[in-house]
Amino acid sequence: MITLHIEHPITDYTVWKTAFDRFADARRDAGVLRHQVRRPVDDPAYVVVDLSFAATEQAEGFLDFLRTRVWANPERAPALVGTPATRVLVTEEESRGAVEEAEGA
User: Fold this and answer.
1) Distance between CA 40 and CA 47 in Å, rounded?
2) Cβ proximity of 45 and 73 under 8 Å
3) CA torsion angle for 7, 75, 51, 14 (degrees, to 10)?
4) How far apart are CA 70 and CA 87, in angstroms?
5) 50-61 per-residue burial string, b: 16 or more CB within 10 A, e: under 16
6) Which of 25, 90, 34, 81 shows the shortest CA–CA distance to 57?
7) Which site in 13, 56, 80, 86 is 20 to 30 Å from 20, CA atoms measured?
8) Is the pLDDT of residue 68 over 70?
9) What's the CA dihedral at 17, 86, 61, 73 to 10 degrees?
10) Residue 102 confidence class, pLDDT cut points 50, 70, 90
11) Alpha helices per DSSP H over the chain
12) Is the dihedral of CA 6, 7, 9, 14 positive or negative?
């Protein structure tokens, strides 16, 4: 599994989330299999987003789309503060921990 990991500060979560939701079709069309949105418990003005892909090329292509078509335009990325920190990651190992144990019992 390939993950596009994105982190950045925001000014308003509701405004940011509305903009994020507007790109649901673009995520699907780019091959996003699932996404997770998280915020630090001690910093509600920060978001961490993980987008899962089947291939590195899909993640890199979507990152290029975000950089050139979304984040470069303040109207498309309201509430974004600064330039997001990003990384394309490959999953080397994954465990579901207690969930796997409960299912196996």
Assistant:
1) 7
2) no
3) 70
4) 17
5) ebbbeeeebbee
6) 90
7) 56
8) yes
9) 50
10) low
11) 13-22, 24-30, 56-65, 98-104
12) positive
Sheet holding 2-9, edge to edge: 34-38, 46-53, 2-9, 85-90
Q: What's the mean pLDDT in 23-32?
A: 97
For tokens 């969930």, name the residue.
99
| pTM of the predicted structure, to 2 decimals | 0.88
Torsion 21-24-20-90 (CA) sign? positive
- Amino acid 75 reads E
What distance in Å separates the CA atoms of residue 72 and residue 74, rounded to the nearest whole number? Answer: 7
Residue whose structure tokens are 């978001």: 47
Task: For 2-92, give the CATH class.
Answer: alpha beta
